[in-house]
Amino acid sequence: MIITFKQLRRLVMPLMASAICFALPAISSAAEAGEQAEKAEHGISLHAVKLVEFGHGFAITNSMVVTWIVALGIIIFARIATRNIQDVPEGAQNFWEWLVEGLYTFLEGVIGHHLVRKTFWFFATIFIFILFTNWFGLIPGVGTLGWGPGEGSLSIAHVDKPLLRGVNADLNMTFAMAIIFFACWIVWALQENGPGGFILHIFGPKGNTTGLLKVLMIVVFLIVGVLEVVSILFRPVSLSFRLFGNVYAGENMLEAMATLIQNPPWLRMVTSPLIPIPFYFLELLVGIVQALVFMLLTAVFTLLICQHEEKGHH
Predict the structure, then answer these.
(1) Average pLDDT in the 34-62 region?
(2) By CB distance 3.0 to 4.6 Å, which of 5, 43, 74, 179 could disulfide with 252?
């Protein structure tokens, strides 16, 4: 899903409002700054809500709760599906084997038999986890059940502190997954190439050249290597923001569709549950696409660093 200008503005405006509050303390008071930030922020908050705090710097957020729920659900389902392995699978075992075998065959066609045996555990896990967290975020109650101002019990009216939040709508989660991949990527690259081969793969000249042309190619690929290092360091940022931006924009779109009809109240009661339905089906598709994109990008990045140039290639 492509983030529109309006949705991008929703991402940027709260940050701009915060910057203004810090940059112009002499012009606006703390109360006025709070009002500006509240007016600038629309839709779902950029930040996960802290539900329980343990001292300074550590807290349990609503997105962490959803992470644990989805992870526990996947683990329990996998245990049930593989508890009693049969030669002719059926039920949960049949679905689980179809999912794992399909992913393995697909990845083998992308990165090859050697790499898929070493890295399949990561790519399959990341695809399954992202897919089911995206879909879990579409369950009614996620983001709409929580606490409102002055309310001591859970409700769905005027919720400003939701109990649950979409996992990938929290940038902390997507960045954590990208950092874990980056660490695995370095390990795999060093295992395949060794330290010297790793550096040579990035900065070494490609192809067979001689004489002055070889010297020129060395200089060119040194420059290209510097750009490649910048690209490699930026990959965790691009991976995390791509997934976060698409999921966050989708949740904002669903909320906008749910609150599209404001008056009269009786019409809103009828149309509010119906208008988002087509967009729910769209988000189901987006959930699969984003999980597939994240898995494919990480797999291709791994293939590019681990593949070896054939000898004699010009």
Answers:
(1) 68
(2) 43
Q: Which two tokens stand for residue 283?
A: 């988000």
Q: What pLDDT score does 207 carry?
A: 65
* Cα–Cα dist 142/145, whole Å: 6
CA distance 172 to 48: 9
Place of tokens 């101002």: 149
CA-wise closest residue to 299 among 125, 99, 71: 125
CB 257 within 8 Å of CB 275:
yes
Q: 276: which DSSP letter?
A: T
CB neighbour list of residue 238: distance below 8 Å, 6 or more residues apart = none
Residue 147 host element (H or E): strand 146-147
3-state secondary structure of 139: coil
What does the pLDDT read at residue 278? Answer: 82
CB 39 within 8 A of CB 15: no
Structure tokens at 32: 């006025």
Residue whose C-alpha is closest to residue 135's, from 301, 250, 50: 250
Structure tokens at 246: 């698409």
Q: What is the mean pLDDT of residues 114-135?
A: 93
> How many Cβ atoms are within 10 Å of 230's Cβ, its own excluded?
9
**Tokens found for residue 164:** 């649950």
Interacting residues of 239 by C-beta distance below 8 A, sequence separation 6+ = 174, 177, 178, 181, 294, 297, 298
Axis crossing angle, helix 92-111 with helix 113-136, rounded to the nearest 10:
130
Separation between Cα atoms, residue 300 and residue 56, nearest integer Å: 40
> In this structure, are strands 146-147 and 59-61 parallel, antiparallel, or unpaired?
unpaired
Residue 42 or 25, more confident: 42
Q: Is 3 left (phi over 0), alpha (psi -120 to 50) or beta?
A: beta
Q: Token pair for residue 263?
A: 């008056």
If one compares 291 and 206, the residue with the highest pLDDT of the two is: 291
Q: What does the alpha-carbon distance between residue 119 and residue 116 come to, in Å, rounded to a whole number?
A: 5
